[in-house]
């Protein structure tokens, strides 16, 4: 399960890097505990776009009410793993 979480975190990092066109960071060097809003500067539109890509990539449903909770790569990764294991 932990490997699954780590793989998911790396994939989410790739998605965020690609969607936001971040430079000087790779999925491996992206700090999974950085606050995406406060420390990376993601706004609500970016977060909505990322959520849509994650939804399509992982085949899960992300409630809009959950967006504010998805603040770090680690939290997003855990959310995805939990949703997939519960079949949502």
Fold topology:
Layout: H1 2-20, H2 36-40, H3 44-58, H4 73-86
Order of helical and strand elements: HHHH
Q: What count of helical segments does DSSP give?
A: 4
The CATH class label is Mainly Alpha
Number of strands: 0
Report, as a whole number of angstroms, the end-to-end distance.
Answer: 17 Å
Radius of gyration: 12 Å
Question: Structurally, how many domains make up the residues?
Answer: 1
The secondary structure category is: mainly alpha
Large-scale geometry: globular
Instruction: Please name the CATH topology.
Output: Non-ribosomal Peptide Synthetase Peptidyl Carrier Protein, Chain A
Low-confidence stretches: none
- Helicity level: 55-70%
Biggest beta sheet attributes = none
What's the average pLDDT?
A: 92
Instruction: Indicate the proportion of strand residues.
Output: under 5%
- The fourth-level CATH homologous superfamily is ACP-like
CATH architecture: Orthogonal Bundle
Short note summarizing the structure:
The chain is mainly alpha-helical and 88 residues long. Helix content is 60%, strand content 0%. The longest helix is centred in the N-terminal third of the chain and has 19 residues, at 2-20.
Could you describe the 3D structure shown?
By secondary structure, the chain is mainly alpha-helical. It has one domain (2-81): Orthogonal Bundle (Non-ribosomal Peptide Synthetase Peptidyl Carrier Protein, Chain A). 60% of the residues lie in helices and 0% in strands. The protein contains 4 helices and no strands. The chain has helices spanning 2-20, 36-40, 44-58, 73-86. It is globular and about 35 Å long. The two termini are 17 Å apart.
